[in-house]
Amino acid sequence: MNYDSRQLTKSIASRLRAYGGREHVVGQTVSSAVVAALQRHDGCWQLLFEVRAAHLRRQPGEICFPGGRIEAGDADPAAAARREAAEELGIAAEAITIIGQLPRVISPVGATVWPYAGIIDDCPLSPPAGEVARLFRVPVAEIRNLTPVTGHMEIALRPSGDIPPDWLPPLYRPTDWSRRRLYPVLFYHCRQQIIWGITAQIVADLLAVLPEEI
To answer: In the chain, which ranges are continuous DSSP H helix?
Structure first.
């Protein structure tokens, strides 16, 4: 068929509508949802953190908020955050109140995290030993008095052995790692522990919306 511009526009437009907002994701990505957990405990509002078990493949021993991967059966990221937090804290989902979404965090290394401000009932917590090494709380007033430090991580790349060198521009041909860019990372030094990265960013975003009186 010899298309004119109007026919070609109509044909392409109809095919684009079939894409339905699909996107190409280059490399591995992980989408997770967490509850930036507030709990009224010992007479004050506190943030509830967990320390990941040391044997886990991803981020062993690191500090995070309760949550986990978004699964296909989850109605939305908020439902995933509530489900995963309930599992990791060993409580009923009804003991978690989701207040609202904080800014989504997209990491340059392939992680997207949907954080939700939420309140955990002051009830017994029973985290599974296989996933969570321990839980700890920090009063909001205490962590608010900390000044986060901004450091920088470096992203580098090099071609793997399955790409012929002459297929690439000279910039991408070195056999050693080539630095591409730096990105900022927040760190909180809290009670002889380091809260950093995505979790630290969520802490900062949560503190920004909390009333100063708590």
So the answer is: 5-19, 77-89, 140-144, 197-209
64 in any annotated domain:
yes
Residue 203 is assigned to a structural domain of this protein: yes
Q: What are the backbone dihedrals phi and psi of residue 166, each rounded to the nearest 5 degrees, phi first?
A: -80, 0
Q: Between vectors from CA 59 to CA 56 and to CA 64, what angle results, nearest 5°?
A: 110
Q: What is the pTM of this model?
A: 0.85
pLDDT, residue 57, reads: 79
- Domain of residue 164: give its range: 30-209
Question: For residues 170 and 135, what is the distance between their CA atoms, to the nearest angstrom?
Answer: 50
Using one digit for the tens of pLDDT, what is the confidence trace for 82-98?
999 999 999 999 999 99
CB neighbourhood size of 17 (10 A): 9
Tokens standing for residue 63: 């500090």
10 Å Cβ neighbour count for 201?
A: 20
CB atoms within 10 A of CB 206: 21
Cα separation, 56 vs 79, whole angstroms: 24
11 within a domain of the structure (yes/no): no
User: Residue 55, Cα to own-chain centre: how many angstroms?
Assistant: 20
